[in-house]
Amino acid sequence: MGSFSIWHWLVVLLIVVLVFGTKKLPNIGKDLGNAVKGFKEGMNEGSKDKPAETPPGRIIDGEADKK
């Protein structure tokens, strides 16, 4: 049960071409690339939306007793 040989991948590729056809494959690749690009942009926007740290003059409940 080792890794797949080149013949296994050629059979899989042949089946994919038979199912989707050669005209649809570039469109599928383009759509997949756009999805990955959109996911990466969303992840970058998510990291920008992190809340800022607590300002220095603000007292948090746990710190009220520390003076």
Description:
The chain has about 70 residues and is mostly helical. It has 2 helices and no strands. It has helices at about 5-20, 25-50. The chain starts with 5 loop residues before the first helix and ends in a 19-residue tail after the last helix. The model has no long low-confidence stretch (mean pLDDT about 80).
Query: Unreliable runs, pLDDT <50, ≥5 residues?
Result: none
| Main sheet record | none
**Averaged pLDDT:** 78
Taking the alpha carbons of the first and last residues, their distance comes to 66 Å
In short:
The chain has 67 residues and is an all-alpha fold. Helices cover 58% and strands 0% of the residues. It contains 2 helices and no strands.
